Each structure stands twice: as structure tokens, then as C-alpha cells.
Amino acid sequence: MPRKQVHLSGILAAVATPFTADGSAVDEDALVALVERLVGAGIHGLVPCGTTGEFTSLSPAEHRRVIELYVSAAAGRVPVVAGVGSLTTQGAIDLVQHAEQVGADAIMLVPPFYDPLDLATLKVFLGAVAASTSLPIVYYNVPGATGIRLDAAQVAELGEIDGVDYLKDTSGDAVALTDLLVSRGATIKAFNGWDTLTFAALALGAEASVWGVAGLVPEQAVALWETLAVKGDLGAAREQWRDLWALSSYLESVNYVAGVKAALEVLGHPVGPARAPVQPLSAEQRAGLVAVLEPFVAVRA
Questions:
Q1: Where do the annotations place pyruvate binding (predicted)?
Q2: Which member of 94, 164, 168, 197 has the lowest number of beta carbons within 10 Å of its beta carbon?
């Protein structure tokens, strides 16, 4: 089928899924408010139902509803890259086709993550899902969750599959990401997905970063993009990165989703708790989070 042409670039916020206070339901009003805040801050795209969006804790109906809400709230102002993950090919296809029907602009696809696929099987999976949609696919490379560990050459092979145009690299492997950005960009466009590598990836020429921190402090994340990727002002970008690095690093030291939910509360934009079995940050962890958020709270004040 004809492939939809979508250009993804800039800071793509990996967004939270707001829940009611008891975690029992999606908080639709809070979700809409979150979108308004991010779009108003100049964010370049939204990525719901990824790791930050707790997709593994959502029922199929909730997953679909969250995608619908993000697409509706974005209202065409920024692209929405719908996160999709399933343990079966048909389950993934069903979610992908729903996302296309409700108006998503692209798909971020994580492969089945219980029984790791080998490269040949992964290609069959991606090919089948890509053939079911006209939307471009961002392959979500997250070996820590899927057990699928690919080198840069193998990742680039995935870009030969029609429709697999982009990569979100959450491997944390700076050498492999550099290889993809410097040597293999003609095959697949690699986006950074490891928070603490954001500066390095943008400096190397990554066309986008899918970043959970951007959903917390969007103004500062967009400012880093403008300074580093657009203007090429390395000195000023280093100064901007200092506080963003501290926040990114801290979130990687605790449960990431619990940290994101706590940070949004501290910043005055509560979106409810992380769903069980994830537990809230301890008092000590929360104090550390408050400390690294202080520069951003001071700016808002």
C-alpha cells in the first residue's frame, strides 16, 4: 500500500499516561492538559504508550483509548507517534491498524519481549506489521526489555524492510549509536532514546531524540535542540545540558516511570501514580529528585 510520508525531527516527548489517584483508570482530563502544556512549550512531537507511557500496564482497550486521546488532543499541531507492543504479530497489527484509523502519524514498534526473537524472525515480524499499515515505523531498539541485542550493521538491515524508516535507540550503546548516525544514516534514521546520551546524539547529527525528560521540562528540552542542533552553539548548549544531564541521570538511577510521575507532581503537573506493581519513590529517592528539579522549579517561579 502507498506509504504515508511523515518527517519526524526535533524533540519528541516520550509522554506519560495519566491515571486517576488510585491508578484504576486513565485520567483523560489530565492527559489533555499535558498535551496542551507540551504543545504550548514548542515540543516537536508526542510519543504515547512507550515505556514512559506504561504501555505494559494498559489493557488493550485503555491502550487504544490513550492513543485516541493523544491524537485528538494534538489535533494535527504536532505528529503523534503511537507506541505499539504485543507478544504476538496479530496483536501488534491490531494496535497498529487502530492507531492508523484514529489518525496517528507514525508507529513506534517494540518487538515481542518475552521470548527474544533472532534476527531472521525479527525481520519477518517487522515485515508483517509494516505490510499492514501505510504509516512509517520507528523500530524501538530496547534490548534491556526485549533481550534482542543487535549490532549497528544488523540494526541497519532492518531499515531495508519497506516502511521501517526510523529507529529509536534505547540500547545505551554510544559506540553503536555513533556508527548508525555516522555510517548508516542512508539505510535507517536513528533517533536517540537513551536520556543521558541526548547531548552526544544531537551533536553527532541525530535528527530527533525521543526523550522522557522532554515531557517534564519541555521548554528546556526544546531550547537545547535549538541551541545545539539548529544553531550549533556548542558552548551554550553545554551550559543548558548541565541541569538536563543531572535530571536525566537521576531518572536512570531510580525506577524511571515512578520518577517521571513524581517529577510531574513536583513540577505542579500531577498525572497520578505509576501502576502497580511499580512502587512510588522512597522518601530518600524523592528528596534526590527534588534536588535535581530545583533549577527547573526556580525558572518556573
A1: 52, 210
A2: 94
